[in-house]
Amino acid sequence: xxxxxxxxxxxxxxxxxxxxxxxxxxxxxxxxxxxxxxxxxxxxxxxxxxxxxxxxxxxxxxxxxxxxxxxxxxxxxxxxxxxxxxxxxxxxxxxxxxxxxxxxxxxxxxxxxxxxxxxxxxxxxxxxxxxxxxxxxxxxxxxxxxxxxxxxxxxxxxxxxxxxxxxxxxxxxxxxxxxxxxxxxxxxxxxxxxxxxxxxxxxxxxxxxxxxxxxxxxxxxxxxxxxxxxxxxxxxxxxxxxxxxxxxxxxxx
Length: 253
Known about the structure:
Layout: H1 3-14, E1 20-27, E2 35-48, E3 51-61, H2 62-78, H3 81-86, E4 87-94, E5 98-102, H4 123-144, E6 152-157, H5 165-180, E7 185-191, H6 197-203, E8 210-212, H7 217-232, H8 244-247, E9 251-252
Parallel strand pairs: 1-4, 1-6, 6-7, 7-8
Antiparallel strand pairs: 2-3, 4-5, 8-9
Helix pairs in contact: 2-7, 4-5
């Protein structure tokens, strides 16, 4: 048994609290290095993620704002005694490929990875890997007799997928089927004006995708941590109402 699996198993034995498995499926393609704020053009260009980009100095990248948001999310959950015992998070990134960069574990032993932007947008591979990891963790809950809430998938992208089309179709079909069978809750989030909102809508038959206002990652992750806290204080299977008014402060409905 691998060391990580052993730790994950011990977590379930030592803490039988019902779990909320959450997978953050994050776009780390080259376009996530796009800059906002005060910057200067260098006059140079590069081709990345299917587009030509101006190279600049200064400013703030989308990815750095996302990294800051992740820190707020983790710190908020760690500070909540009930949520920190219930929430289990993994992070999948997708660029040229898809990788699990943080596997499920007790949140207090996890360290947020440093994200790097490069390559294309293999969204299909990313979502399929995320669903595989959620299914695997659910199986481990069942084997250890640990109850769990409906899994969450947070899908964030700033563009259109340009990876394998078959992988994308498979990911959309799997996601929709799980949602229709009440086995998954999805939060589809578009970043910036070029986010593929129509594609995100295909993943979400019951909920309109949300577009992040002005790179308000911190506000989004604060809202998400509050939603985790509210869920952790309910009973598995109980329907939880999202705070729609709060969503309007960071997202466009």
